[in-house]
Structures are given as structure tokens and as C-alpha cells.
Amino acid sequence: MCDNNQITKDLLKRFKKLRKTTVDFTNNLDAEDMVIQTNEFVSPTKWHLAHTTWFFENFILKKKRNYKIFCKSFNYLFNSYYKQVGTYNPKLQRGFISRPYLNDIFKYREYVDEKIIELLNKSNVDEDILFLVELGINHEQQHQELMIMDILNVFSSNPTLPNFLNKKTKLKKKVYSNVFWKKNIKTTLNFGANNNYFAYDNEYPRGTCDLLPFELSKNFVTNSEWQEFIDNDGYNRSEFWLSDGWEFIKKFNIGKPLYWIDEDHEFTLYGLEKMIKDKPVSNISFYEAYAFSKYKKKRLPSEFELELYLQSHKKSGNFMENNCFEPIAFDENELEQNAYGNLWSWTSSNYSPYPGYKPFQNKLSEYNQKFMCNQFVLKGGSFSTPKDHIRASYRNFYYPTDRWHFCGLRLANDLDL
Ligand SMILES: [Fe+2]
Question: CATH number of the domain at 180-414, please?
Fold first, then answer.
């Protein structure tokens, strides 16, 4: 029981910090910024604020006797995709929700916070509830990153290109060097999560696989390397591209990363910036990452190769806590301390269940299971991921056409046995 109470105390502390961090992100925003939906993949900040709250209310508080629902219509407005919970407002119409007012959403957050805090202030809280609070915290952390991704897209759609953040420190220019981590021997990897810490269902069960000798770049591909790819007509040479990727870039007339304005400028959370050549390139689709790797006569790493790399390094890097909301170029000496974070790394692995996979139970089976089709795994976390959210076994996933998330690429290569 003592342990259980300690876990509860710890969760309470983390819950309070999490909820404050989410609201703090809105300090630089006004109501107009928080309601618009600039693309089908974007959700308004207001929706994120409400949906993360709905998650705690729906999966935890509603189960309690005598709990009074804050507002009945919120189940329709702020359920994301849980069909077993009821019908919901279509994703494409999240930007149509002008009512309730933003202020009511903040009141909703306060109401639910109070009830969860009340629950965690009790002793001997059920293990099921503790698990759901932990899941709710991790869920909101995912949405914190989504909020930042979506804010960047919203701001980039303003013709005046405003900045979301003000730069506090000027980043030092680093000298770029391509450094590879080598695994010269055949290795058996124990992949997946163990039961000593929280992990999503998609990280279980643990398994093993054999990896042939390979090398992996410790640093991300840079803006200047990407410019070289463009200069060499990379977007017009079909020999580098998967068939679907070629169709995709030609259909949507794609010839540069999502937020590049021109050769010398890119749009960032700090507004319009002069392109830093040594900075990791970001906001590229899986198809573009794949084509670049072929152009370099290399390949993308598998999720298991990246998991081995992450397992072999300390969990440190450019995370949300650094308050540096962009990828950083590191010199050779710094790479060892920055194996995690900065940008999510695309992998060549399809997002599929591990053998023996069991989804979360009941309605939460919809959390991950139904997305295990046509997506690719990304590893490592980004500058917008909280440090306590990431681990070596973590599997993020996006469609091969997605490019609004903070992703980059590392190159891999086979080594001789
Ligand atoms: Fe969600």
C-alpha cells in the first residue's frame, strides 16, 4: 500500500505540472490563433485543450458515482476517434467550433483538474485508476507536441509570417561532420518495453531479432545536404523514388521541405529565419527521406537498428524542457550526448503489431490498434517531446505523406560481416 501511495503522490505532482505546461503554451496566443484549422491534419489549439481534458473526464471521472459531467455536448465535440464512446464531430470540422467560448474551455480544464486532484489526494487509489491517470498524462504529452506542430502550421499560413516565440539565445554555428556509429558484428536485439515503467500497448510484448552489421549516422541530414539534393535535381529523378512517393510529389507539386520559403529562408516557430545550413533538415515526408537515402547510396535504418542505437546511449538530447523549439546542429563531441531528441527519425519499418500484441482493454483498444496500417515508425523524440515521455522502445507513427511533424532522417548502411 505504501508503494501505491507513493505512486499516487508522484502522479499528482506530474499531473499538476503537465496541465500547467499545456496552458503555458497558450501564453503567446490569442483566441483567434486558437480556433482556426489550417489543414485537414491540423487541430485548433482550443480543441487540443478540450480534448485532453475530455480524455481524463471520459475514461476516469465518468466512472465515478456522483460525478457531474461538465457539459453533455462536449462528448460529441471533443471525442477524437473513439467509436465505442459515441459519435463525434468530424476531424475536418474541428475548426468550426466557435462555441463554447475559449474561456469555457479553460473553465472545463479547471473543473476536471479539481476532480482529478481530489481523486489523487485519497489514499489507496485503485491500480486501474492510477494506470488511467498515467495514460492520460502520456496522452496529453503527445498532444503538447501536436499543439506545437499545429501552431507552426497555423502561423505559417498567415501571409504576414508572424513568430510564435522570441529567440532568447542565438545558436552557435556548428561545423558539420558526418559521423557514423558502427556495429561491426551480428547482434541480437531485445526490443520492446519491459514492465518496469509505463509504455504503450504497441511496445509490447518484448521480443528478439538479429541485426546484421550496420552503420548509422549519429547526426541528422542537414539543410545544406538537402539543398545539394535539390540542386542535383533530386525531386525530378525518378530513379530515387518509390512509385507512390513519385506520384505524391508530382500530384502535390512538392520540391522542397514543408516550411522552406526559398533557398535562404525557412519558416520556424521563431518566424521567418535565415536558413542555417548546418541545421538538421526537418518536415520532410517518408517518401522524401527514402529518396534522399537512395540519392546518397544509403538506406533508412529499421526501427530495430534505431532502438539498438538508443538503448546504447544515455537518454539525453534536445527535448521540450530545453525551451529551444527547433532542431540544433551538434559537433562531433556533442553527438554522444544527443542520441535522443532534436527530431523524430524516420525508419524503414512499417508500423505493425509485434508478434503476440495485445491492445489496451475495452474502449481504449482504439488508442493504437486501429492505426496499424499504412504508416511508418519514427524513433527518438524531438525538441518538442517532454524528456519523461520518450524511451528507446517508443514507437511513433505517421503516414508516408505526412510532413508537418518534427521529423528528420539519419542514414544507415550495411557493413560486411
Ligand atoms: Fe488524443
Answer: 3.90.1580.10
